């Protein structure tokens, strides 16, 4: 299996475009295809430049990779061509003032000024807020745990960019039920790792937490 070099910005930009309308590399749930690409992206990309890749990377990081189904080879089949060679670039980076004629220094100076102005305008454009809906699970210690108090403790946790939603109890066996709760987060503001740590600090009630599903809005 050969995947492209994701340290190359042009390749990372293509992955960003690919994940704009997708939550995973292949299909509608995380798989070994996601693990294969995650292992090639050495660290979490800058969320201001690559918000979709950054959101996807953070989500895959939090999963148990060994439990995911599929084959890593599926990643190469699912992804479009992402060679780092200087092929067609995004429209935003196209040279709008190129010419086949001999270089004119004055024309080059004007071109450089216009490109600089264009990039400044593009940089000042407000960026849309990226949000995800998360299905979050909280497991109690046993069947004697006060689930109502546990849920109240969970909902009492506040973060900028976090909104708690509907919840339900899901039986897991032996008279024990886990709390399954939906929440909406702003990807740039809320760290799911930090949220899980805060929930697990409710030591009298919480045995463990898990992210059952995560979908970009």
From TrEMBL:
Residues 131-217 form the Translation elongation factor EF1B beta/delta subunit guanine nucleotide exchange domain. Residues 96-122 form the Elongation factor 1 beta central acidic region eukaryote domain. Residues 67-80 have a biased composition (Basic and acidic residues). GO terms for cellular component: cytosol; eukaryotic translation elongation factor 1 complex. Residues 185-212 form a coiled coil. One of its GO terms (molecular function) is translation elongation factor activity. Residues 67-93 are annotated as: Disordered. SUPFAM superfamilies: eEF-1beta-like, GST C-terminal domain-like. InterPro entries: Arc1-like_N, eEF-1beta-like_sf, EF-1_beta_acid_region_euk, EF1B_bsu/dsu, EF1B_bsu/dsu_GNE, Glutathione-S-Trfase_C_sf, Transl_elong_EF1B/ribsomal_bS6, Transl_elong_EF1B_B/D_CS. The keyword RNA-binding does not apply. Keywords: Coiled coil, Elongation factor, Protein biosynthesis. It comes from the Eukaryota. Belongs to the EF-1-beta/EF-1-delta family. This is Translation elongation factor 1 beta. It comes from Malassezia psittaci. The gene is EFB1.
């Amino acid at each position: 299996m050969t995947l492209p070099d994701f340290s190359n910005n042009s390749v990372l930009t293509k992955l960003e475009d690919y994940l704009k309308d997708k939550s995973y590399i292949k299909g509608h749930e995380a798989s070994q295809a996601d693990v294969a690409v995650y292992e090639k992206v050495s660290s979490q990309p800058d969320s201001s430049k690559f918000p979709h890749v950054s959101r996807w990377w953070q989500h895959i990081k939090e999963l148990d990779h060994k439990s995911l189904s599929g084959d890593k080879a599926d990643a190469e089949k699912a992804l479009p061509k992402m060679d780092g060679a200087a092929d067609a670039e995004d429209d935003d980076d196209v040279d709008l003032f190129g010419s086949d004629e001999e270089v004119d220094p004055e024309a080059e100076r004007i071109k450089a000024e216009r490109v600089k102005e264009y990039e400044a305008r593009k940089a000042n454009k407000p960026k849309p807020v990226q949000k995800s809906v998360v299905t979050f699970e909280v497991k109690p210690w046993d069947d004697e745990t006060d689930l109502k108090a546990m849920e109240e403790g969970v909902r009492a946790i506040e973060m900028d960019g976090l909104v708690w939603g509907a919840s339900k109890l899901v039986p897991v066996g032996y008279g024990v039920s886990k709390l399954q709760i939906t929440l909406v987060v702003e990807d740039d503001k809320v760290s799911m790792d930090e949220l899980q740590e805060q929930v697990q600090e409710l030591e009298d009630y919480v045995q463990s937490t898990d992210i059952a599903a995560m979908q970009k809005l």
